[in-house]
Design a protein that fits this description.
Strand content: 15-25%
Number of helices: 25
Largest sheet: 9 strands, mixed
Strand order of the largest sheet: 13-12-11-10-9-8-21-22-23
Length: 708
């Protein structure tokens, strides 16, 4: 034992293991894993690992463990069929599913969340849309049976079931996106999941109960580990929980056997074990939050000798947690909520000592669930109320990853009480420079956002901003084709604006009221300040009425754009060229723009009849940048029009495999014949026309120099 203790107290050992784990991560990043399927398969067989039912779109979604994990979706045709599926399919069952495999698609925007990459890190390469489901055999595994019974039991507990699944099982599938977004906005999203604090609470509770039986220390901890492992098998696996369990296991062994290994080295060992288990943990935000906050608080506690009051301790923990999570929040979300320091003082004990214990207790004693409902109602109402308070939110632009790592050069010494005032002053200066970046280095650029099948263009100049259209995928459900698209583009767009350091939009121009051009205006108006909303001059449809109503609610100025109206955005000048028509596409706002020696033409969905009218009324001359009309449809881009404007660069905004088959092959060929450089969002992803650098950059890292 003495020899083992000497080895375990050899400090370079822990640094060596940690360095090896980092090298392992770097090696894994260069390893490209591949699917075991070809993609042409029409049948898969495997075990059901997760089940969720969405009544809004009549879908049953399952994770099937076949050769590899596959996310499957089946659209049920009636309530009777749904009831049959709910009664007959359980976790652990072995199913055969016929359908079509398809690759997941992600919008290709700079800094954007990649759904494809996210799934691949979980070992999922294909999605399947099922045509039929056949149950081959029922589950016989005791763990799956218990898990299924637990989920069924919790689902019967009514409105609180989503909270019990969240705080007891680590499953957030039933929690609304609105509530998740509100937690994130007020800066307490790290609390809305099973965490190390809750595992610590559970550990302390189990040890307290075991201490009543006068067991030896080794027996108590052995029983504890058995209970925790069993609990882990029942809950949904997540990086934050696995981190908490590994920390608990390693720290407990150190305590039981009196190895006296300092906390810092136990942390290094714990992190190394986790990275060897799964190197993709480094990309998990929940894991990063829980790990770095836990590590920082442990290091802080080792430097403190004095005892402080409970209230003061809450404030100190909240303040240090805010500092430790600051770089992670800034990198991933580009904003922080200063008031979260105060919010956490209330919500940390509220969730950890009230909601979490009640969620656990409700599983065992269901009649406690009304009490849980009372407190979760308080939780929801207060969170939604605070979400509407914009005070305290600070938006920072995305910068180099190294910049965020450097934050810890000031934060860690501050946590360890080393030159606190000096470190705090440097940290404040660092934050100020970061915050002021958009004002110091102002962009003059046009961003073509990849919003799938739709249009959206962001113009930036001298601190001013204008968004032309918002995108907005059409929701359509067809019994025959079972073709469903989901919204959410507006949320990603707002997040992208934050990444650029944009705190408000000066202008939102909606060329016309079609869904794929204007629907996400509702989301954008809801999530950020918009000074002026411009609509086209023509009949107002139902979507435009909703936008006008929302705009007035949030204090935006609403205006109809008439022919020859001028809009100035920094050094850009735009003129509206189109008239009002009865048809929505015909009445699209057509914008002619100028910046220095460059000119632009944004055609919206204007057809060839509008092109002809514009040629008759205006002498356009050659165009440097043309936003090609109607996503490259054959209804636009006539030869007559192209012969006159001779576009040097044409941009088509369209979705991958869209049902309209945009762009039309003949239209694409026509532009090539006119020697136009064609850029397309479904091929190139997001496109940035950077006038400061005089170059065009695409998401696919293709670069083109501007001619002038």
């Amino acid at each position: 034992m003495l020899t083992l203790r000497k080895i375990l107290l050899f400090k370079p050992l822990y640094f060596g293991i940690f360095i090896l784990s980092i090298l392992y991560i770097l090696l894994s990043l260069n390893y490209e894993s591949k699917s075991l399927y070809q993609g042409s398969e029409t049948e898969i067989s495997g075990i059901v690992e997760t089940i969720s039912i969405n009544n809004d779109d009549n879908s049953l979604k399952m994770t099937i463990k076949a050769k590899e994990k596959i996310l499957t979706t089946y659209y049920f045709k009636s309530q009777t069929e749904l009831d049959q599926l709910k009664n007959n399919i359980h976790l652990g069952d072995y199913l055969k599913i016929n359908g079509q495999l398809k690759l997941p698609h992600s919008t290709q925007n700079f800094y954007s969340f990649s759904y494809t990459t996210y799934l691949q890190r979980k070992g999922i390469f294909y999605l399947m849309q099922g045509d039929s489901i056949t149950k081959i055999s029922s589950n016989t595994n005791i763990i799956w049976k218990l898990k299924d019974m637990l989920y069924t039991h919790i689902s019967k507990l009514g409105d609180v079931s989503c909270y019990i699944k969240t705080f007891f099982l680590g499953n957030q599938d039933d929690v609304s996106d609105t509530l998740k977004s509100s937690f994130q906005k007020i800066g307490i999203s790290h609390l809305f999941a099973l965490s190390g604090t809750q595992i610590s609470f559970l550990t302390a509770l189990i040890l307290k109960i075991l201490s009543l039986f006068k067991l030896s220390t080794i027996k108590k901890y052995l029983i504890l580990f058995i209970i925790l492992v069993f609990y882990y098998l029942l809950i949904d696996s997540c990086a934050a929980i696995e981190r908490a369990l590994v920390f608990t296991f390693i720290f407990s062994i150190n305590k039981v056997f009196n190895f006296f290994i300092p906390s810092f080295y136990l942390i290094l060992l714990s992190m190394s074990v986790l990275f060897f288990l799964n190197p993709n943990y480094i990309f998990d935000i929940g894991f990063l939050y829980s790990s770095i906050i836990s590590i920082g608080l442990i290091l802080y506690s080792t430097r403190q000798d004095k005892k402080i009051s409970f209230i003061k301790e809450l404030f100190v923990i909240s303040w240090l947690s805010f500092l430790l999570s600051l770089p992670i929040s800034l990198y991933n979300f580009s904003y922080i909520n200063i008031l979260s320091i105060l919010y956490n003082i209330f919500y940390v004990p509220f969730i950890n000592f009230i909601v979490f214990p009640l969620a656990m207790l409700s599983v065992i004693i269901p009649f406690v669930s009304p009490l849980l409902l009372f407190f979760t109602t308080i939780l929801e109402k207060t969170v939604y109320f605070l979400d509407n308070i914009s005070v305290g939110i600070m938006i920072f632009p995305r910068v180099s990853l190294l910049f965020y790592v450097l934050y810890y050069v000031f934060i860690i010494p501050y946590i360890l009480n080393m030159k606190k005032k000096f470190c705090f002053c440097l940290l404040t200066l660092f934050l100020f420079i970061h915050y002021m970046k958009p004002y110091i280095w102002q962009e003059n650029a046009i961003y073509v956002l990849d919003v799938g099948q739709g249009d959206s263009f962001l113009i930036l100049s001298n601190g001013k901003s204008m968004l032309i259209d918002t995108g907005g995928k059409m929701n359509y459900y067809d019994e025959k084709n079972k073709d469903q698209e989901e919204n959410g583009i507006g949320t990603y767009s707002v997040q992208f604006f934050y990444y650029l350091g944009i705190k408000k939009l000066d202008y939102l121009v909606l060329t016309h009221g079609d869904v794929d051009h204007a629907k996400e205006a509702l989301t954008i108006l809801d999530k950020m300040k918009v000074e002026k909303v411009y609509l086209n001059d023509g009949p107002i449809n139902e979507l435009e009425k909703e936008i006008i109503k929302k705009g007035k609610q949030v204090g935006s100025h609403i205006k109809e754009v008439k022919q020859n109206d001028i809009i100035r955005v920094g050094d850009f000048i735009f003129q509206s060229l189109n008239k009002a028509y009865e048809d929505e596409n015909e009445s699209s706002i057509v914008l002619y723009g100028m910046y220095n020696q460059y000119n632009f033409l944004f055609m919206g969905d204007a057809p060839t009849s509008v092109e002809k009218t514009i040629l008759e009324e205006y002498e356009l001359g050659e165009i440097d940048f043309l936003k090609i009309g109607h996503h490259g449809s054959k209804t636009s881009s006539s030869d007559e029009f192209l012969d006159v404007i001779k576009p040097k660069i044409g941009i088509i905004s369209a979705g991958i495999d869209n049902k309209f088959n945009h762009p039309n092959e003949e239209v694409v060929k026509r532009y090539y014949e006119h020697q136009t450089l064609l850029l397309q969002t479904h091929v190139d992803g997001m496109i940035k026309i950077d006038f400061n650098k005089k170059q065009i950059k695409t998401y696919q890292n293709r670069f083109y120099q501007l001619a002038k």
